[in-house]
Amino acid sequence: MKTAKSRLLFVFALFALVAFVGLSVGAAAAASAASKAATAATKHINAEYLSLPFADASDEARVKRGLIVKGDGKVFKDDGSVVWDISRYNYITGDITKPGNFPDTVNPSLWRQAILNTEHGLFEVTSKDFSAAKDGTDVRYIHQVRGYDISNMTFVETKDGFIVVDVTSYKESAAAAVKLFYDNLPAAKQAKKIHTIIYTHSHIDHYGGVLGVLNSAMVDNPDTVTIVAPEGFMEAAVSENVTAGAAMSQRARSMYGAALWSPQLGIPQGRGQVNNGLAIGLGNGTSGLMPPNTIINADNTTKVFDDINVTFLMAAHTEAPAEMVMLFEEYNSLCLAEICNQTQHNILTPRGAEVRDTIAWSDALDSMKKWVDGNPAVDSAWGPHTWPRWGNAEIADYIGKQSRLYRYIHDQTVFLMNKGYDMTEIAEVFTLPPDLAKEWFNRGYYGALSFNVKAVYQKYLGWFDSNAATLWKLPDKMSASFYAKYLPKSGGDLVKAAKLAYDDGEYRWTVEVLEKVRLASSDWFPGGGAGYNNALSLQADAFEQMGYTAESGIWRNYFLTAAWRNRDGTLAAALAAPGAVSFGADTVTNMGAKEILDTLSTQINAFTNASNFKGTILWDIDGEKYVMNMEDHVLWTKAALVASPADATITLTRADLNKALVSSPSYWLEELLKDANISIDDNKGLLTSLAALTRIAPPSLPGVSGGAPVDPGSTEQSKALLSWSNGGVFDVGSENSDSVIVAAVPSGRTVSGITITNIGGESKAISGATEWNGLRFSVDVPGAVKVSGSPIKSGIFTLSLEVTVDSGSRTEKLTGIVEFLIRPASGIDAETFVESEPSRWTLAATRNSDGSYAVTVSVPATAGIPKDGDDVYVRLAALSNVAFKFENDILYVTCVAQSRAALEALSLSYVGCVGADGRLYEQTLNPAVTWKNIGTKKVDGEGNSGGCNAGFSATVLITVLAAIATRKKKQNPR
Questions:
Q1: Mean of the pLDDT values across residues 416-445?
Q2: Whole-angstrom Cα distance, residue 264 to residue 27?
Q3: Do the Cβ atoms of 234 and 242 come closer than 8 Å?
Q4: How far is CA 494 from CA 2, 528, 640, 705, 892, in A?
Q5: pLDDT by residue (tens digit) across 320-354?
């Protein structure tokens, strides 16, 4: 036993040394300058988050449910020093439904999460009557201690004792949690002992407190307690916390904001660390480890602990390299481990770790959801962070949406990656679809969306963006020294500074500086010209010299290719085009059918509104059946183990599938739809819609230098010649529906020939107005190609234009290709939009069958807002059938927006000011704008500011403007 104890203490000492030690700040010097208040720009940015659904108070009910006792939330070491004190965060209070009252120095969404995470103490999660007669004589519980550490400790009661799931980060926190638990147990249960510990995964905040749970006898005799962990636990724990532990510890100081509550810094409350997303904060205790003696290594393994059956599901390489979830069967209670949380998690943690596998993560969540779907009795779900959820349907929705969250991040990052965008370009503009983004538990409180997108990119392609300018980038400090050396000598001219560096042989800095010039050429050299050409030429020279000195053959190739890219525009265009996927017949033959179907998930453009359909497609390939689901803009293929209803069915042979994949690897689904030998039952047009999503252009990335890369299936010229809206996907409804522009030709160019080709290969030349396939095509030459009507069936159409370009010096003809999809509006679910700016306005719009939108805007009466009977002037734009009504100090405006474009351009304003007498007075109105007076009182000073000059208290200007268009852009973390 002495040997065992020595081994355990050695491991304990080793982990204590390298884990979270040093995260607190000791005698720090006072800050040289006080922290600053939020600027007007910061307030404006934070106000944009007020459109989130703050009125939903259900999380507050969840986080408080089952509270038994709070305790003091304080943890100390033996020497009296503080490990954890939640009273530091007593200032984080407020009503989560009233974000306008939150401090302006914290993102209101994060402050909401912080309020929820401050709830601490001992909680009841669920209970079960184990008595044979169900008379309440043997009621047992699952309890949880939250808020005494970054992680929770959960106690599952058995007949003769307790199972503990995860043991927090530090022995001091764990001991405090155990004491709080036992102090509040009924006297009859005080004798029950902890007999089993389960580590859900290999992160130190889940096993580090084990020595605070075990007594000395257990440490001396480790076989007296069962310690359970997933396969690979010890290897992963050592890898993440010892091998790279010192570096991780240093990085964690910033990640967890450990210094930001140091009294020596004097940072005011609300201007430092307020939340870590998964919990309110991180302590500073002593971590250790007791190795497991029971290993779980297979899905659906069931172990009996005392009289409780626990079934395990493996979740390796998700949130941790070794992880598992579990179902406590008698309690019908699900432990989610850390793969499902009340926040978006990290695919790559900033403190450092291996990049996590989003597909494995998503699959594990999906497998867990099947447990819930298949067992309606499962009614509680909890984990080692944040708070539980209750109710079978709610748990299934929670797990399902987080599963689709990680799958969407993976698939659409890969989609854009394969279109030629680099890591930072993708991360800058990546957004979640509304149904996923609106869920509080998908917001990026811990794992930021931008960081996660970069992690997916890194997993596949690494840190290098394939730009020769970053292949051998200078360290920041060295680069900065060159800026200091060369910029003053050049008079601030970057190109001249680069030439000075080039002459000194500092080629790497020359390349770095001129890359900025190349990418922002229109800012430095509007219209190009000699200055721009000189910059490109100098950078090419520097690349060339770097190639001449490179020992690595592939580095030499990169540098010399970049040099000739700058010198030859044809080569530059060829290098910019995304690569094409190709498969040899042998490769295809050896791929599984599901592997092939899975490739579609990363080939569709889910950023377009066209991907909002929900449906199920059944694939029958030589009798093997697969179900393909589209939900929340995520495409997912699974083996059809049981018969299930489908919205569309496609029956084919494996030979048919192979032939399509070899002949058209990027658009093989489209090839299948052309094949007369394949049986298709698809009255909703789901397959055609899906095929179109692989054809349309990728979403534009505003602010990305050089514009979007060329989409396969189009040409470089077409990008310059043509533009199209909404991703090339159009819903056409009744005969009276508005026309939609599918292609626009820039001014100064003329169209000399137009051909439309559908997915079946039929073509028709059009001019003027032409009817075809139930559609009406009209051409305004020069100008735009429009389509309207009611199509017989949905289909993909290729628009080929021959455009004459007159540059003044010469005339040439170029051919452009635009691919787009026409869908019947009847095949689309009605869309409902609800946008709001709390305390200012709420807009709800529902799409009608004729393509118009029924709109209701409500504006509550707040300070300075008109009351019943006041004069109100309302500006009208893009509206019809307008009605106004005051009710309970809320102004309701109902109207009809004739199209999506009209809805997005909707403008509704109060214009006026409140005089010293409390009445509303109008300001001078623009005579070019139509105004309607809907009040009943006479306004003083008609046509001018009237009583406002007598000392007014506030100007009233409430505007609903482009509500849908602007709100959809607010999903990225700032």
A1: 89
A2: 7
A3: no
A4: 69, 16, 61, 19, 57
A5: 999 999 999 999 999 999 999 999 999 998 888 88
Integer Cα distance of 717 and 354 in angstroms? 42
Residue 30 clears pLDDT 90, i.e. is over it: no
DSSP code per residue over 715-735: -HHHHHH-B-SGGGEEEE-ST
Cβ burial of 168 (10 Å; 0-12, 13-18, 19+) is buried
Q: Are 410 and 949 in contact (CB under 8 A)?
A: no
Please provide the DSSP assignment of 147-169 as one string.
Answer: SSSSS-EEEEE-SSEEEEE---S
Q: Is 146 helix (H, G, I), strand (E, B) or coil?
A: strand
Q: Parallel, antiparallel, or unpaired: how do β-strands 775-779 and 769-772 relate?
A: antiparallel
Question: DSSP code of 267?
Answer: P
- Cα–Cα dist 769/776, whole Å: 7
Strand, helix or coil for residue 485? helix
- The pLDDT of residue 235 is 92
Nearest partner of 177 among 216, 141, 210, judged by Cα: 210
Q: How many CB atoms lie within 10 A of CB 763?
A: 12
| Total residues belonging to the chain | 974
CA-to-CA separations, 454 to 187, 322, 697, 972, 973, in angstroms, rounded: 54, 23, 22, 13, 14
Q: C-alpha distances in angstroms, 904 versus 71, 308, 608? A: 52, 57, 16
Is the Cα dihedral 260, 263, 264, 267 positive or negative? positive
Give dist(CA 774, CA 795) in Å, integer. Answer: 11
Cα atoms in the Cβ-side hemisphere of radius 13 Å centred on 515: 16
pLDDT digits (tens, 9 = 90+) for 931-971: 444 433 323 333 333 333 333 223 333 333 333 333 222 22
Q: Report pLDDT for 530.
A: 81
Helix orientation angle between 392-418 and 449-461, rounded to the nearest 10 degrees: 50
How far apart CA 29 and CA 438 sit, in angstroms, is 43
Please name the residues in contact with 555: beta carbons below 8 A apart, sequence gap of 6 or more.
471, 472, 546, 547
The DSSP code sequence of 16-43 is HHHSSTT-S--SPPPPSSPPPPPPHHHH
Residue 239 has which token pair? 């890898």
| The token pair that represents 854 in the structure block | 């029924």
Distances in Å between the Cα of 214 and the Cα atoms of 222, 238, 248, 832, 850 are: 9, 21, 28, 55, 69
pLDDT digits 0-9 by tens, 805-827: 554 444 555 555 566 777 655 43
Q: Which residues contact 134 (CB under 8 A, 6 or more apart)?
A: none
- For residue 917, how many other CB atoms are within 10 A of its CB? 12
Residue 873 CA to residue 932 CA, distance in Å, equals 6
